C-alpha cells in the first residue's frame, strides 16, 4: 500500500468513528430514553479517551517503533467497533467507545509522526494538504451512509461498517516498512519524560496552543449538527447527511486550495488570511443567528472552508519546531487539538446558550482572534531572533 494512502487512512480514523455515528444520536435518545447530554457522552468520552491515549502511543512509537504500536492500535479499534455494535445501553456504549478510542489514538498520532518521518519541508506541507482534501470525504459520505443504515438496517451496523473499513488500515500497517528515525531510550519513566523536553521547547508549545483553539467552533458544530438539523429544522437523517456533507466539502475545498497556494506563496500570509476568514464566518453566524437552514449553512460553510485552508499549514509549522521526539510531539499537538474539541462538543450540548448557532459563532470568533494575535507575535519574535 502506498505511504500516502496509508497516512490518509490513519488520519481518517477520528472522522470514521464519529461522523458515521452522528445520525444515530437522536435514534439512541429515543430507544434508550436519554437526554442529548447523555447521548453526547458517547462522543465526549470518546474524544477524551482518544486525546489521553495519544499521549501514550506517541512516545511509545518513539521508543519501540511506529509499526508495532500502529498494528496493535488498529486491532484494538476493530475490537472496540464490535463491542459498540453489541451495546445494550448508553453506559455499555460509552465503555465500548473508550476501547474504540484507544485504538484510534494510535492511528491518529502516528499519521502525523509518519508524515514527519517520510516527507520533508514543502513536500510534507503539500502531503498534509492533499490528505486534508481527502479526509473531508469521510464526513461527506459517513453521515449519509449512517443515515442509510438507520433507514434500512440498524444503528449497530454503523459500527460493524467502521470495523470492516479499519481492516484496510490494518493491511497497510502490516505492509509498512518501518521508517528510520532516532529512537528514544530507557524504560517507561524515561519515555514519559520526553514530554518534559517538549514542554521546554517554547516555539513548539506556543504554536500548539495557538493553533489547537482554531477549530473549536467546528467541533461544537459536529456535536450539535444532528440536533440543529434533525430536531431544530425537522430534517430527515438522509437530508441531514447532505447538509453535513456540505461543510465537509467546504473543508475539502479549503485544503485543496492550500495545496495550490503553498507553492509560491507565503505560508504566513495564507495563515493570516485563513484566520481573518474564520473570523468573518464566526461574525456571520452571530449576525444571522442561524435562524434558517440556509442562514446557518452559509456561515458554517465559511467556517469549515477556512479551517480546512489553515490546518495543513498550522500542523506543518508545529512539526517544523521539532527534530527529535516526533511521535511525542505529534501526540501532544493532536491531544491538545482534540481535548479542546471535546470540551467544545460537551459545552454546546447544554441549554445554557440562547441558541447553539450563536455559540458556534462565538467559539469561531475566539478561535480566530486569539491565534491571529499569537501568530503575528511569534512570527515577529522569530524574525528578530534570526537577525
TrEMBL record:
<feature type="transmembrane region" description="Helical">
    <location>
        <begin position="98"/>
        <end position="115"/>
    </location>
</feature>
<keyword id="KW-1133">Transmembrane helix</keyword>
<dbReference type="InterPro" id="IPR011701">
    <property type="entry name" value="MFS"/>
</dbReference>
<keyword id="KW-0813">Transport</keyword>
<keyword id="KW-1003">Cell membrane</keyword>
<feature type="transmembrane region" description="Helical">
    <location>
        <begin position="127"/>
        <end position="149"/>
    </location>
</feature>
<dbReference type="InterPro" id="IPR036259">
    <property type="entry name" value="MFS_trans_sf"/>
</dbReference>
<keyword id="KW-0472">Membrane</keyword>
<comment type="similarity">
    <text>Belongs to the major facilitator superfamily. Bcr/CmlA family.</text>
</comment>
<keyword id="KW-0812">Transmembrane</keyword>
<feature type="transmembrane region" description="Helical">
    <location>
        <begin position="270"/>
        <end position="288"/>
    </location>
</feature>
<feature type="domain" description="Major facilitator superfamily (MFS) profile">
    <location>
        <begin position="3"/>
        <end position="383"/>
    </location>
</feature>
<dbReference type="InterPro" id="IPR004812">
    <property type="entry name" value="Efflux_drug-R_Bcr/CmlA"/>
</dbReference>
<dbReference type="InterPro" id="IPR020846">
    <property type="entry name" value="MFS_dom"/>
</dbReference>
<feature type="transmembrane region" description="Helical">
    <location>
        <begin position="204"/>
        <end position="230"/>
    </location>
</feature>
<feature type="transmembrane region" description="Helical">
    <location>
        <begin position="155"/>
        <end position="174"/>
    </location>
</feature>
<protein>
    <submittedName>
        <fullName>Multidrug effflux MFS transporter</fullName>
    </submittedName>
</protein>
<feature type="transmembrane region" description="Helical">
    <location>
        <begin position="242"/>
        <end position="263"/>
    </location>
</feature>
<feature type="transmembrane region" description="Helical">
    <location>
        <begin position="72"/>
        <end position="92"/>
    </location>
</feature>
<feature type="transmembrane region" description="Helical">
    <location>
        <begin position="294"/>
        <end position="314"/>
    </location>
</feature>
<feature type="transmembrane region" description="Helical">
    <location>
        <begin position="357"/>
        <end position="378"/>
    </location>
</feature>
<dbReference type="Pfam" id="PF07690">
    <property type="entry name" value="MFS_1"/>
</dbReference>
<feature type="transmembrane region" description="Helical">
    <location>
        <begin position="326"/>
        <end position="345"/>
    </location>
</feature>
<feature type="transmembrane region" description="Helical">
    <location>
        <begin position="41"/>
        <end position="60"/>
    </location>
</feature>
Amino acid at each position: 500500500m502506498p505511504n500516502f494512502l496509508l497516512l490518509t487512512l490513519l488520519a481518517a480514523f477520528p472522522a470514521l468513528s464519529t461522523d458515521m455515528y452522528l445520525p444515530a444520536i437522536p435514534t439512541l435518545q429515543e430507544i434508550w430514553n436519554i437526554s442529548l447530554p447523555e447521548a453526547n457522552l458517547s462522543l465526549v468520552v470518546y474524544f477524551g479517551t482518544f486525546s489521553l491515549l495519544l499521549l501514550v502511543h506517541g512516545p511509545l512509537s518513539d521508543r519501540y517503533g511506529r509499526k508495532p504500536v500502529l498494528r496493535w492500535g488498529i486491532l484494538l479499534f476493530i475490537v472496540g467497533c464490535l463491542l459498540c455494535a453489541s451495546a445494550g445501553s448508553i453506559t455499555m456504549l460509552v465503555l465500548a467507545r473508550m476501547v474504540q478510542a484507544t485504538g484510534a489514538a494510535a492511528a491518529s498520532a502516528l499519521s502525523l509522526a509518519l508524515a514527519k518521518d517520510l516527507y520533508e519541508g514543502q513536500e510534507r506541507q503539500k502531503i498534509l494538504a492533499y490528505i486534508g482534501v481527502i479526509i473531508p470525504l469521510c464526513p461527506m459520505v459517513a453521515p449519509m451512509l449512517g443515515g442509510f443504515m438507520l433507514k434500512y438496517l440498524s444503528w449497530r451496523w454503523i459500527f460493524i461498517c467502521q470495523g470492516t473499513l479499519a481492516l484496510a488500515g490494518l493491511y497497510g500497517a502490516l505492509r509498512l516498512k518501518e521508517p528510520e528515525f532516532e529512537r528514544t531510550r530507557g524504560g517507561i519513566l524515561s519515555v514519559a519524560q520526553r514530554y518534559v523536553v517538549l514542554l521546554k521547547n517554547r516555539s513548539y508549545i506556543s504554536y500548539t496552543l495557538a493553533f489547537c483553539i482554531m477549530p473549536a467552533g467546528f467541533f461544537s458544530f459536529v456535536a450539535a449538527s444532528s440536533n440543529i438539523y434533525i430536531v431544530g429544522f425537522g430534517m430527515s437523517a438522509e437530508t441531514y447527511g447532505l447538509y453535513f456533507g456540505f461543510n465537509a466539502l467546504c473543508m475539502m475545498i479549503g485544503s485543496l486550495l492550500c495545496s495550490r497556494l503553498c507553492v509560491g506563496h507565503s505560508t504566513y500570509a495564507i495563515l493570516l488570511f485563513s484566520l481573518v476568514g474564520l473570523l468573518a464566518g464566526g461574525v456571520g453566524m452571530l449576525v444571522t443567528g442561524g435562524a434558517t437552514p440556509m442562514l446557518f449553512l452559509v456561515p458554517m460553510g465559511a467556517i469549515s472552508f477556512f479551517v480546512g485552508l489553515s490546518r495543513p499549514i498550522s500542523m506543518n509549522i508545529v512539526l517544523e519546531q521539532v527534530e527529535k521526539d516526533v511521535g511525542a510531539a505529534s501526540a501532544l499537538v493532536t491531544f491538545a487539538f482534540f481535548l479542546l474539541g471535546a470540551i467544545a462538543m460537551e459545552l454546546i450540548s447544554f441549554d445554557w446558550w440562547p441558541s447553539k448557532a450563536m455559540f458556534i459563532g462565538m467559539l469561531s470568533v475566539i478561535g480566530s482572534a486569539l491565534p491571529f494575535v499569537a501568530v503575528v507575535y511569534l512570527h515577529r519574535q522569530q524574525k528578530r531572533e534570526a537577525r
